[in-house]
Write a structure and sequence with these properties.
It is a single chain. The chain is an all-beta fold. It has one domain. Helices cover 0% and strands 58% of the residues. The protein has a three-stranded antiparallel sheet with strand order 1-2-3, with no helix packed on it. Strand 2 (25-34) and strand 3 (37-48) form a beta hairpin.
Length: 50
């Protein structure tokens, strides 16, 4: 790398959204961050809590 270029970044974070529990199911979400830009997606199926 030359000058003020920064190193590219890539991250994935997974979590259960326990605020939206319905019938003992909590939706699973993933947040993908690339160079500071992020997007969240809901994954299927949901996790059974019990």
């Amino acid at each position: 790398m030359k000058g003020n270029e920064t190193k590219p970044t890539f991250r994935i974070l997974f979590w259960l959204n326990t605020a939206k529990i319905k019938d003992s199911l909590a939706p699973i979400y993933a947040r993908v961050t690339i160079n500071g830009y992020r997007s969240e997606i809901r994954l299927v199926p949901s996790e059974i809590l019990g």
